[in-house]
Specification:
homodimer; 330 residues; alpha+beta; 7-stranded mixed β-sheet; 5-stranded mixed β-sheet; 8 helices
């Protein structure tokens, strides 16, 4: 299960098996979307399978997540989604009402984002060979002008921005399974982050060096990947990282770090120091970006690692997610 | 299960649920790929999930099928594949050797076709929540010049071309499951048909009106969909349809019609009468197209249906596939 959790085991699987065989000897760091040239036009493409359990949860459901998750991978790659295609793997016996609800959720999310669903495919497997339904979405889009995402351009002195509170999605899913005797007023943060990205790019495009949506593996895993790819250190000030009380409380009870918990409606950005305030202002003024924060900065040390410091001067190295405390989160 | 078989129930599901909700009120007939414009450049896109059982079979395996199946959907839409993206849904406990074999099969098929694999995603579900692995591939490509696929342009007098013998894939899968006490020297026909399509387009592009790869539901289902979309009748001469003895024998034993059996390396084309010989010659001269045939023609009657005639003057209407005699064929 850990190989699907988005942390260290996932990274080993991708870097040890998939990438060398499938992507050849490309030396580019792996991003959220691939950039291609079709007939001379730049095109961004990204794909994800969704196996979230349960299918619906406070704040969202698999259909909505499958649309917004893919839109977000394009957004943090600096691309505006133009179209989605979708496949369903359905378990025989799935009530048609459940399928219809998720198809409607997809249509609604796509319409809200102004993105066309251009095609799809459906397969049915025997009862017991899937868990109700799995959805795969692929998004294609066109790169926004005025922004280039490149982890290797990240420099000491750059600021780390976070769009809002972390951990809402992962903890909501965990509680929605009903296996723990914990209740909390919490909803998944699932949404399209493209409007926020677009606002930030308009205001601070030339200063944006890197973006990522910290889904599986959370903020800690995304920033560890960045630290490794850019070779610098990432230093976060813990008190600046927005975490709701309900998330913090559940994490304390369960021995989890909010920095490892999945998000579905937040993104991280590295912005040069001279553009950081403009980027933050743009986010804070946009709907849904009111709680965006500068949470830290890039330094020379600890090279390749993520260090979290507290207001009392304590500090700890935070690694990628190891193992899988929360399987099937998206 | 019938809803996944590609026949009547699948069509009802797509036309009754997916299309109205997801594709809006587009009046275009559903094709194998969608044509989009990104930054002014025409781009074709198609997506498919693969759930074939068993994972490997004489002539191919799920990884190879997932690449070639998607390349073929682009090919019969008149597009050259430029890149693929891929997702895996893996069952926890899957031996890594099996995964590696399928990743290698994908890489090999993509390399053979000269197509880049640009990205991907992996999810892991608990043991018992998938059947070893499901693969989803999405292909994007650029439309070939000089050919337009449009079922509504099909006219009485046009000829129906078939690239080679039918039923090899479906019967191979059926026998590979080992549930029947039948043995036969048979291999799946899985391959990329793009080289054949390209040769035919070069020789007869202006005369080509429609193409389709008759996968789930077979030749009968593809031609019934065409008959419905164009409003004319499709008349086939049974003796001209190439079927290997092993396929014919298995179908007779099992009460199946080869016209309903899935193919993975064949395609159908409708070509205007004045270009039909040029198209057939081009196929027959290309490697792997030696057994291509003109198998029938478009007539005014029976409008909206497919009629098969025998050399003795008998005839029968052949409907779309109903039910699912061969689940999880691709």
């Amino acid at each position: 299960m850990a190989h699907g959790a988005g942390g260290k085991a996932s990274r080993r699987l991708v870097e040890g098996l998939f990438a060398p065989l499938l992507f050849g000897d490309s030396a580019e760091p792996l991003g959220d979307a691939a950039l291609l040239s079709i007939n001379g036009a730049p095109v961004a493409i990204t794909t994800d399978s969704f196996v979230v359990k349960p299918l619906s949860f406070p704040g969202g459901s698999i259909g909505e997540l499958a649309v917004n998750g893919t839109l977000n991978d394009l957004a943090v790659s600096g691309a505006r989604a133009e179209a989605l295609v979708v496949t369903y793997v359905l378990e025989a016996g799935l009530p048609v009402g459940i399928l219809e609800a998720e198809v409607r959720a997809m249509a609604r999310a796509a319409r809200a984002a102004g993105v066309r669903i251009a095609g799809g495919d459906t397969k049915v497997v025997e009862h017991g060979k899937a868990d109700r339904m799995y959805i795969t979405t692929t998004g294609i889009g066109r790169p926004l002008r005025g922004v280039t995402i490149a982890p290797r351009s990240v420099q000491p002195g750059d600021k780390i921005l976070l769009s809002g509170p972390i951990g809402d999605h992962g903890i909501t899913i965990l509680l929605a399974r009903g296996e723990l005797d914990i209740e909390a007023e919490l909803r998944s943060d699932t949404r399209s982050v493209f409007p926020l990205v677009e606002a930030m790019v308009s205001a601070a495009g030339p200063g944006i060096r890197w973006m990522r949506d910290p889904t599986r593996g959370g903020v800690a895993t995304s920033l560890n990947e960045l630290a490794r790819d850019c070779g610098h250190g990432i230093v976060l000030l813990e008190e600046l990282i927005p975490v709701r009380d309900a998330v913090r409380g559940a994490c304390e009870l369960l021995g989890l770090d909010p920095l490892h918990i999945a998000n579905e409606g937040q993104f991280l950005a590295v912005v040069s120091a001279d553009y950081a305030d403009a980027a933050l202002n743009a986010l804070n003024l946009a709907t849904g970006g009111e709680q965006a924060q500068i949470i830290g900065e890039v330094r020379e040390q600890p090279a390749g690692s993520v260090l979290v410091t507290t207001r009392y001067g304590g500090s700890r190295i935070v690694d990628m997610l190891v193992g899988d405390p929360l399987p099937r989160i998206c």
